[in-house]
Amino acid sequence: MMWYLIFYFSSCWAAYNDGSTSTLLNLEGTIPIFYRDNQYNIPVELWIVETYPRAPPVCFVRPTADMMVKPGHPHVTSDGFVKIPYTVDWQPDFTLLELVAHMCSIFGNIPPVFRRPMTSRPMPHQDRLDGSSTSVSSGHSSTGGYFQRGSQAQSRTPQPSPYYIPQFQTQSRQGLSSSEGAYDTNLLFGSSAQSLEGGSSVSGPELYALGGMSNGMRPEDRAAALKVEVTRKIQMQLEKNFKRVRDDIDLQFEYEVQLTQSRENVERGLQSLRFLRDDLTRAQGILDAQDESISVWLEENENKDALDPDAILVEGDDLSKQYVDYLNWRLQQDEETNLTLCLSRMIMTLAESYSIDDALYYMDRALSNDEIELSVFLKEVRKLSRKQFMCLALVQKIHAKQQELTSSSYYRSPRD
């Protein structure tokens, strides 16, 4: 199915929330949607921001006087601001045509507006034809910062009329209703065709206002809604602030615990260092006293004659001399006897070790000739190996003893 889009553009200046102003391109028109096999035309307004195409256009749904925004719509706020995934995930290569197509698809599933009940329709009023500016407050933080359009927005009381005649727009929209078709007034939106047709007293195209005035709510209802919205935002901000403060307090408590533990560790370390200092001081005093006593002893015995250890034992008579000679002779005999015993024991031990080698050799040949079982061979080899190890260890000990006896007899001074 082919369908055509007709948008009227104009150059309008808009004011930011911080008071700064700029001139933006404004596109007004309708987009077709298909709801329950019927076509409806939704009035929308697109604002091309200064950072476009890096930033997405700001889109609004502009219901007519006998229409209102559907409460709780997932993609349209109460003031008509449109927020769809296409604008949230906006990329510089996205186009306005694709944006309109996404809006048509989403609004076809969930229409953003519906017919206003007859009891809540606003009273007719005199349209403003002086061409002065009016308020276009969005009332939503996600509209890119555009708060109002016109210099007299804050000084003029909002009117329930959803449209006015700007002095800078001279084109006519009389062909819009004939090319797109009037609103279906019986199925969804009610009688709303006069807002897009040229038969009214308005001589130029209508510009749907931004903000809470677009849905024609009563001032007290609008004030209550704004109060609820502001209260909710304040509560959310307070919750965020409380959470941040609570997290900071918890973090500071953790820091305090860590600092307390660190202080205790430092105090324990200082106490242990004090104890160590006292111990070192006492040890230094003891060492100084011992050093002093050793120095005194060295001074006293430094010039004395050296004593011969062999001359210490001096016999006093003939019997003592005979006894000393006997001891020396017996010592010499014992040394010779010990050397003889060590030599004979080493010979026997070496002979036993060599006999074990021969036994291992013949057992190996018997195993090669299948004259002995493997299990018996291994068992006997373990026994002989253990016995040979003990023999070799004994040989080493005997050799060490021989060296000791030899050295002692060599350095011993003979006595006459």
From TrEMBL:
<dbReference type="GO" id="GO:0008333">
    <property type="term" value="P:endosome to lysosome transport"/>
</dbReference>
<dbReference type="InterPro" id="IPR017916">
    <property type="entry name" value="SB_dom"/>
</dbReference>
<keyword id="KW-0967">Endosome</keyword>
<dbReference type="InterPro" id="IPR052070">
    <property type="entry name" value="ESCRT-I_UEV_domain"/>
</dbReference>
<feature type="domain" description="UEV">
    <location>
        <begin position="1"/>
        <end position="117"/>
    </location>
</feature>
<dbReference type="Pfam" id="PF05743">
    <property type="entry name" value="UEV"/>
</dbReference>
<feature type="compositionally biased region" description="Polar residues">
    <location>
        <begin position="149"/>
        <end position="158"/>
    </location>
</feature>
<protein>
    <recommendedName>
        <fullName>UEV domain-containing protein</fullName>
    </recommendedName>
</protein>
<dbReference type="GO" id="GO:0000813">
    <property type="term" value="C:ESCRT I complex"/>
</dbReference>
<feature type="compositionally biased region" description="Polar residues">
    <location>
        <begin position="167"/>
        <end position="179"/>
    </location>
</feature>
<keyword id="KW-0653">Protein transport</keyword>
<feature type="compositionally biased region" description="Low complexity">
    <location>
        <begin position="131"/>
        <end position="145"/>
    </location>
</feature>
<feature type="region of interest" description="Disordered">
    <location>
        <begin position="117"/>
        <end position="179"/>
    </location>
</feature>
<dbReference type="InterPro" id="IPR037202">
    <property type="entry name" value="ESCRT_assembly_dom"/>
</dbReference>
<feature type="domain" description="SB">
    <location>
        <begin position="340"/>
        <end position="408"/>
    </location>
</feature>
<keyword id="KW-0175">Coiled coil</keyword>
<dbReference type="InterPro" id="IPR016135">
    <property type="entry name" value="UBQ-conjugating_enzyme/RWD"/>
</dbReference>
<dbReference type="Pfam" id="PF09454">
    <property type="entry name" value="Vps23_core"/>
</dbReference>
<comment type="similarity">
    <text>Belongs to the ubiquitin-conjugating enzyme family. UEV subfamily.</text>
</comment>
<dbReference type="InterPro" id="IPR008883">
    <property type="entry name" value="UEV_N"/>
</dbReference>
<dbReference type="GO" id="GO:0015031">
    <property type="term" value="P:protein transport"/>
</dbReference>
<keyword id="KW-0813">Transport</keyword>
<dbReference type="GO" id="GO:0043130">
    <property type="term" value="F:ubiquitin binding"/>
</dbReference>
